[in-house]
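User: For my dataset I need records formatted as: sequence, then structure tokens, nothing else. Please produce one.
Assistant:
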Amino acid sequence: MSIAIIANPLAGRGRGQKVAQAVQQLLKEQNVDFEMVFTQYAGHAVELADQASDKHPVVAALGGDGTVREVLSAIWQKPSALGVIPGGTGNDYARGLGIPRETEAALKVLVEGTAAPLDVGLEHGDVFGQLACIGFPVDVIMHVNAHRDGLIKGSAAFLAGVAATLRNLRHYQVRITVDGKVLEKDVVGVFVMNMPYGGGGMKFAPDARYDGGEFHVVIVEKVSRWDLTITLPKIYSGRHLSNPAVSVVQGKEVSIEGQSLPIMLDGDIFPARPVQASIKPRAAQVVIPKAPA
């Protein structure tokens, strides 16, 4: 089996480059047939993955969740399976798929793991595999992206973004439609989840699965800065769902209308527009750890 690795050297504020070097060394030592190519600009992973899928049965993304999303968008309708080597800031694809974030362990999954079905989300034709969201979480990611050159990295960068965003917490009147059911809400954020995690390990939708066949739509209604501050630490364990301002609705088709807001798909920011998301169950293949014997 040959493996193509699409590596983003800038992911994780330079972590991607270090992980790529380690991966090359480890795979050579194991005599694995692989090809590694490096991205040079935003969107380049899509082009590289598209080309690689014609030659390799596994096309792996080495980088952050945005890099994984680009590779997935190129190969989800092709025979190649998606591989994930965590090398970014959040690495929530890896969390949601049960892939270790330590490089050597993640490579063991890539080489020895098994292909499994993966649901694919489409938002106005743009692919996502982890989450689509609006509101507060998008403000957090925009803050993280604006401070990429700082000293704070990893999950701590997300926490710093949360702290900065809380100072200017906003809320929005929206109409959320899930499989025809209409909800009028005043929200600080809405998450359309295909996996449990976002924001570097925050367990927004504890029961969401990559192969569950439907989205888990997490709605956070208008809350005070203090209430949100108290609730946020609970997200890491999923206990935030006990807050009456937080609710979850499941469905295959989701629209969010009202104030036009920027959208985040798997860590990438897209221009403001109404959300129109649909799920394609089991549309792609992804390499995950083998189940224990």
